[in-house]
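Example for tutorial group B:
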Protein backbone atom coordinates (compact mmCIF):
# COMPACT_ATOMS: atom_id res chain seq x y z
CA UNK A 1 0.00 0.00 0.00
CA UNK A 2 2.83 2.45 0.85
CA UNK A 3 4.65 1.54 -2.40
CA UNK A 4 1.48 2.32 -4.37
CA UNK A 5 1.19 5.73 -2.63
CA UNK A 6 4.84 6.57 -3.34
CA UNK A 7 4.40 5.52 -6.98
CA UNK A 8 1.35 7.79 -7.39
CA UNK A 9 3.23 10.67 -5.71
CA UNK A 10 6.19 10.24 -8.10
CA UNK A 11 3.84 10.17 -11.14
CA UNK A 12 2.15 13.40 -9.99
CA UNK A 13 5.53 15.12 -9.52
CA UNK A 14 6.62 14.00 -13.02
CA UNK A 15 3.41 15.35 -14.55
CA UNK A 16 3.95 18.73 -12.86
CA UNK A 17 7.55 18.91 -14.09
CA UNK A 18 6.64 17.96 -17.66
CA UNK A 19 3.67 20.39 -17.79
CA UNK A 20 5.91 23.45 -17.50
CA UNK A 21 4.30 24.66 -14.30
CA UNK A 22 7.74 24.85 -12.72
CA UNK A 23 9.23 27.13 -15.38
CA UNK A 24 9.64 30.55 -13.84
CA UNK A 25 9.22 33.46 -16.28
CA UNK A 26 10.48 37.03 -16.13
CA UNK A 27 7.45 38.38 -14.31
CA UNK A 28 7.41 35.88 -11.47
CA UNK A 29 4.59 33.67 -12.74
CA UNK A 30 4.91 30.05 -13.72
CA UNK A 31 4.39 28.69 -17.22
CA UNK A 32 3.30 31.97 -18.82
CA UNK A 33 3.74 32.23 -22.57
CA UNK A 34 5.02 35.54 -23.86
CA UNK A 35 4.58 37.51 -27.06
CA UNK A 36 6.42 40.57 -28.31
CA UNK A 37 4.32 43.38 -29.74
CA UNK A 38 7.31 44.19 -31.94
CA UNK A 39 6.59 40.89 -33.72
CA UNK A 40 2.99 41.85 -34.47
CA UNK A 41 2.57 44.20 -37.41
CA UNK A 42 0.17 45.44 -40.09
CA UNK A 43 0.23 43.74 -43.45
CA UNK A 44 1.26 45.77 -46.49
CA UNK A 45 -2.21 45.39 -48.02
CA UNK A 46 -4.00 47.48 -45.35
CA UNK A 47 -6.46 49.80 -47.11
CA UNK A 48 -8.67 52.78 -46.31
CA UNK A 49 -11.86 53.99 -47.95
CA UNK A 50 -15.10 55.83 -47.25
CA UNK A 51 -18.69 54.69 -47.32
CA UNK A 52 -22.07 56.31 -46.94
CA UNK A 53 -24.70 54.64 -44.75
CA UNK A 54 -27.94 55.31 -46.61
CA UNK A 55 -30.20 54.43 -43.68
CA UNK A 56 -28.73 57.19 -41.48
CA UNK A 57 -27.06 59.48 -44.00
CA UNK A 58 -23.77 59.21 -42.11
CA UNK A 59 -20.39 59.11 -43.84
CA UNK A 60 -17.62 56.82 -42.51
CA UNK A 61 -13.92 56.34 -43.16
CA UNK A 62 -12.81 52.77 -42.63
CA UNK A 63 -9.49 50.98 -42.46
CA UNK A 64 -9.16 47.23 -42.99
CA UNK A 65 -6.32 44.79 -43.31
CA UNK A 66 -4.46 42.06 -41.50
CA UNK A 67 -2.45 41.91 -38.31
CA UNK A 68 0.45 39.48 -38.68
CA UNK A 69 1.74 37.61 -35.61
CA UNK A 70 5.35 36.56 -36.10
CA UNK A 71 5.62 35.21 -32.52
CA UNK A 72 5.93 31.51 -31.74
CA UNK A 73 2.90 31.82 -29.40
CA UNK A 74 -0.67 32.92 -30.05
CA UNK A 75 -1.33 36.62 -29.38
CA UNK A 76 -4.31 37.14 -27.07
CA UNK A 77 -6.01 40.23 -25.65
CA UNK A 78 -4.70 42.39 -28.47
CA UNK A 79 -5.24 46.13 -28.06
CA UNK A 80 -4.74 48.54 -30.93
CA UNK A 81 -5.27 52.29 -31.23
CA UNK A 82 -6.34 53.88 -34.49
CA UNK A 83 -6.06 57.59 -35.24
CA UNK A 84 -7.47 59.58 -38.16
CA UNK A 85 -5.86 62.84 -39.37
CA UNK A 86 -6.87 65.75 -41.58
CA UNK A 87 -4.81 67.25 -44.40
CA UNK A 88 -2.83 69.41 -41.91
CA UNK A 89 -1.88 66.43 -39.73
CA UNK A 90 -4.36 67.31 -36.97
CA UNK A 91 -6.04 64.46 -35.13
CA UNK A 92 -9.72 64.30 -36.04
CA UNK A 93 -10.75 61.20 -34.13
CA UNK A 94 -9.32 58.13 -32.39
CA UNK A 95 -10.78 54.66 -32.08
CA UNK A 96 -9.57 52.05 -29.59
CA UNK A 97 -12.19 49.44 -30.39
CA UNK A 98 -11.17 47.81 -33.65
CA UNK A 99 -12.88 44.63 -34.76
CA UNK A 100 -10.35 41.80 -34.94
CA UNK A 101 -11.28 38.35 -36.31
CA UNK A 102 -10.26 35.95 -35.01
CA UNK A 103 -9.57 37.91 -31.85
CA UNK A 104 -6.68 35.57 -31.00
CA UNK A 105 -3.99 35.83 -33.64
CA UNK A 106 -2.44 32.38 -34.14
CA UNK A 107 1.31 31.93 -33.83
CA UNK A 108 2.92 32.70 -37.21
CA UNK A 109 -0.57 33.57 -38.44
CA UNK A 110 -2.85 36.51 -39.15
CA UNK A 111 -6.17 38.04 -38.16
CA UNK A 112 -8.28 40.46 -40.12
CA UNK A 113 -9.06 43.81 -38.54
CA UNK A 114 -11.51 46.58 -39.30
CA UNK A 115 -11.92 50.02 -37.75
CA UNK A 116 -14.22 52.85 -38.73
CA UNK A 117 -14.37 56.57 -38.02
CA UNK A 118 -17.29 58.96 -38.47
CA UNK A 119 -16.37 61.37 -41.27
CA UNK A 120 -19.45 63.37 -42.33
CA UNK A 121 -17.35 66.23 -43.73
CA UNK A 122 -14.79 64.07 -45.60
CA UNK A 123 -11.93 65.53 -43.55
CA UNK A 124 -9.96 62.33 -42.97
CA UNK A 125 -7.03 61.93 -45.34
CA UNK A 126 -4.69 59.61 -43.45
CA UNK A 127 -4.71 57.10 -40.61
CA UNK A 128 -2.38 55.42 -38.16
CA UNK A 129 -2.82 52.07 -36.43
CA UNK A 130 -0.63 51.22 -33.42
CA UNK A 131 -0.43 47.94 -31.56
CA UNK A 132 -0.53 48.80 -27.87
CA UNK A 133 -0.38 45.41 -26.16
CA UNK A 134 -0.88 41.68 -26.47
CA UNK A 135 -0.64 38.72 -24.10
CA UNK A 136 0.47 35.13 -24.45
CA UNK A 137 -1.94 33.84 -21.79
CA UNK A 138 -5.64 34.20 -21.10
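The residue assignment follows.
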Amino acid sequence: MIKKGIFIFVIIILIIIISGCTTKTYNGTFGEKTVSIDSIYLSNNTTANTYHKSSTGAQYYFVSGYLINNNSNDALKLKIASTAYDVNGNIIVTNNSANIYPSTIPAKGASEFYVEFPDNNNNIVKYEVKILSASGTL
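The chain is about 15% helix and 45% strand. Compare this with the pattern of hydrophobic and polar residues in the output above.
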